[in-house]
Specification:
The chain has 134 residues and is of the alpha+beta class. The chain has one domain: Pnp Oxidase, Chain A, CATH 2.30.110.10. The chain has 4 helices and 8 strands. Strands 1, 2, 3, 4, 5, 6, 7 and 8 form an 8-stranded antiparallel sheet that branches. A hairpin with a 2-residue loop joins β4 and β5. The longest helix has 13 residues.
Length: 134
């Protein structure tokens, strides 16, 4: 799996984010956060659910019992950048809660893996909407 993601990243980078922009039926974007300890830029390719008006990410971490680094980074510094279809834009992360979170989580559950991730972990998987900074 790690080799597959490296190959995916290579094609993504060579195409400027225009190719390999779907995995497992979900669209992919590049998220650039600021490291919560290092302060350095951190980049990851990640699938999302496209909801109006902004994409939503799930911090599933493949069912691990801890949040992925990008979630920790966004909690510490919610401003980030995303690249979709070759275009970069500035965003602000907002963590979903309550009924809003549950309704969006139902969209993730339509795709393979997310229900398994939920069963594998004891934590509530964070959902993060990436709202444009205007």
């Amino acid at each position: 799996m790690r080799l597959q993601w490296r190959a995916h990243r290579l094609v993504w980078d060579l195409s400027g984010g225009r190719l390999t922009n779907r995995v497992g039926g979900l669209p992919i974007l590049e998220l650039e956060t600021t490291g919560h300890r290092s302060g350095a830029p951190r980049s990851i390719l990640i699938s999302y659910v496209d909801t109006p008006p902004a994409p939503v990410l799930a911090g599933s971490n493949a069912g691990a019992d801890h949040d992925p680094a990008w979630v920790k980074n966004l909690r510490a510094a919610p401003r980030a950048r995303v690249r979709q279809a070759g275009e970069w834009r500035d965003v602000r992360a907002r963590f979903l809660e309550g009924e809003e979170r549950q309704s969006v989580w139902e969209l993730f559950l339509r795709h393979p893996g997310y229900s398994a991730y939920e069963r594998m972990t004891n934590r509530i998987i964070p959902l993060v909407v990436l709202e444009d900074v205007g």
